[in-house]
Amino acid sequence: MCPEWRRKGIGTILYNSAYDTLKELKANVLTTYFNVTSENPNEFYKNLGFRKWWVYHEAHYMNKRPMFDMDITFIPYEDKYFHSYSKLIQDCFYQLRKENDIKPYIVPFTEKDRENKASTKDSTYLSFEGKELVAAVVVKDGYIDTIVVSPSHQGKGLGRKATEFAISKALEQNPTSVHLSVLGWNKKAIELYIKLGFKITKTVQFYRQFCDKEF
Ligand SMILES: CC(C)(COP(=O)(O)OP(=O)(O)OC[C@H]1O[C@@H](n2cnc3c(N)ncnc32)[C@H](O)[C@@H]1OP(=O)(O)O)[C@@H](O)C(=O)NCCC(=O)NCCS
């Protein structure tokens, strides 16, 4: 809304007409999101019945090409690792999804996911200790995604090594923009990324409301 037209009830009228359409679609839950800037519309959404849900940050790598001491081996994903990879993802994201109420709490994996994973296998890297899959990262076009360390191996420096590996890979792919996203809840991961040279460049707030409201 242009600044001079604000606080005149127009936003609420627009929202109410959108809500009527959504009601016809029989939506159970409405979600919305916005970039967090100095002009936060928090109160606007709260008054309409929305409640804060979760926040994510986008972060960009700000350092020059680093020289990491790579004493960890990552190998490209292969279909034979599908079950151990799926289990690792489910174990690693259960707490995050539960505490942020992102359903389903256990990430589902189907045969379709298996095919998709196989078709993007070149961007997924796995690290083993003996035969056990202990860490994984996805790196595509400079975007780092899904850095995971098996819960039983966390807190021992593997996450840092996996992230360093991912940064090196991402810089090879796209030297001008290495970036990632992280949930605001994930303080541990945020601390790790900032230590390694990432800077938060954007914050997005999600709100939701359940549709038991009548206008
Ligand atoms: C985030 C994650 C990859 C970190 O892996 P890790 O092996 O536990 O991390 P490391 O042992 O290498 O620790 C690296 C840094 O992370 C932070 N960290 C790790 N454990 C922490 C803890 N229990 N409390 C606070 N910070 C912690 C610290 O900054 C630490 O640096 P330090 O050792 O210099 O203090 C791992 O916790 C994980 O897989 N989490 C679940 C999946 C996930 O959330 N992935 C990130 C998606 S964006």
UniProtKB/TrEMBL annotation:
<dbReference type="Pfam" id="PF00583">
    <property type="entry name" value="Acetyltransf_1"/>
</dbReference>
<protein>
    <submittedName>
        <fullName>Mycothiol acetyltransferase</fullName>
        <ecNumber>2.3.1.189</ecNumber>
    </submittedName>
</protein>
<dbReference type="InterPro" id="IPR016181">
    <property type="entry name" value="Acyl_CoA_acyltransferase"/>
</dbReference>
<feature type="domain" description="N-acetyltransferase">
    <location>
        <begin position="72"/>
        <end position="215"/>
    </location>
</feature>
<dbReference type="InterPro" id="IPR000182">
    <property type="entry name" value="GNAT_dom"/>
</dbReference>
<dbReference type="GO" id="GO:0035447">
    <property type="term" value="F:mycothiol synthase activity"/>
</dbReference>
<keyword id="KW-0808">Transferase</keyword>
<feature type="domain" description="N-acetyltransferase">
    <location>
        <begin position="1"/>
        <end position="75"/>
    </location>
</feature>
<keyword id="KW-0012">Acyltransferase</keyword>
<dbReference type="InterPro" id="IPR050680">
    <property type="entry name" value="YpeA/RimI_acetyltransf"/>
</dbReference>
